[in-house]
């Protein structure tokens, strides 16, 4: 009798430990399936696309399923509706200090003049907003070091907390379709690289699973 | 004086309370919106069929990756990689577009000298290429624009020993200004040093993919 009860208990324990593991595996497989679907939809097109994997804190430049550059997201937070895992076009980029497209003039010694006129990575803004389809807004900020960085962090934290909260309230009041706000803090050079490479009408998808 | 200080302090406290309330309500609303959303891993399917599906999808994505010799260019860092599949065979410092804009003073035309991002392929390979100067080259130099097929448009020796065309007038070619390699100084073409250009010419076949980001 005692042996039967022990065997039964062991069986129940085994079932109890296996069932959640299977459920977890199923969940991960479905998630992987959705990510692969989104990837395939973009990878079959002959263009560059961007993947923001918030769960792994990575931003990737990809083409044909191949990652060409990977940028680290130092810190991120998301507010509002969870972004759907689907292709999102970049509608526009907005920066407080936009890089100006320098207008050329007639010059004899092109090489010498161009030295001063080239628009390079260092001319790109470190802090900017990316506006996507489907009411997704991404605020990217290059993380500065030292006192200046701490002040900027404090300002961003205050601005982010209150502006998102007030916008959410206004959206609710006006019955606007709900939006997604994502804040990314990156190394300044990598924030500039993202601004440089991510052009309007380029597509991307965002991986964010707050339930995991 | 004391009254003013108390008044200002009161205003600061009221504003802080109002903002905190807004933040709290906004956070509550946004988190309830998040709670109602479907989870990424929700849905149907059993373990075996999902595993099969994912394997097939992975294989379909992997099959899209360029096979054989291909070129990848990072226009921000001015680096070119010659690849065989995913393996890097050679790395070169290049010069990509300036992003500068040129406006035609006579008309409504304008040009932005950007290297075109995206996926392209090598369409033509040339030895000792001549440069057929487009209209913007004359406008930039403040010279009158000659007719389309004029010999005045042809300039020899400025594109290096080889050129690989990727369409729409864009080439990977040599340069006279080698000290500017590594900087964004071109009109949209990709300028390459002599040795690297020769390696590209010898190893890259027509039809090879060129990925530019």
Would you write up a description of this structure?
The complex is a heterodimer of chains A (212) and B (213). Chain A contains 4 helices and 8 strands. With 212 residues, chain A is of the alpha+beta class. Chain A has one domain (45-207): L,D-transpeptidase catalytic domain-like. Chain A has an 8-stranded mixed β-barrel with strand order 1-2-3-7-6-5-4-8. Chain A starts with a helix and ends in a 5-residue tail after the last strand. Chain B folds into 2 domains: 1-33; 67-212, L,D-transpeptidase catalytic domain-like, CATH 2.40.440.10. Helices cover 33% and strands 27% of the residues of chain B. Chain B has helices at 2-36, 47-64, 135-141, 194-203, and strands at 69-74, 79-84, 87-95, 101-103, 110-112, 118-121, 124-127, 130-132, 154-156, 162-167, 170-173, 190-192, 209-212. The chains are: A alpha+beta (212), B alpha+beta (213). At the A-B interface, helix 1, strand 3, helix 2, helix 3 and helix 4 of A face helix 1, helix 2, strand 4, helix 3 and strand 13 of B.
Question: What is the topological layout?
Answer:
The complex is a heterodimer of chains A (212) and B (213).
Chain A: H1 2-43, E1 49-53, E2 58-63, E3 66-80, E4 88-95, H2 110-117, E5 127-132, E6 136-142, H3 146-174, E7 180-186, H4 188-197, E8 203-207
Parallel strand pairs in A: 1-8, 6-7
Antiparallel strand pairs in A: 1-2, 2-3, 3-7, 4-5, 4-8, 5-6
Chain B: H1 2-36, H2 47-64, E1 69-74, E2 79-84, E3 87-95, E4 101-103, E5 110-112, E6 118-121, E7 124-127, E8 130-132, H3 135-141, E9 154-156, E10 162-167, E11 170-173, E12 190-192, H4 194-203, E13 209-212
Parallel strand pairs in B: 1-13, 11-12
Antiparallel strand pairs in B: 1-2, 2-3, 3-12, 4-5, 6-13, 7-10, 8-9, 10-11
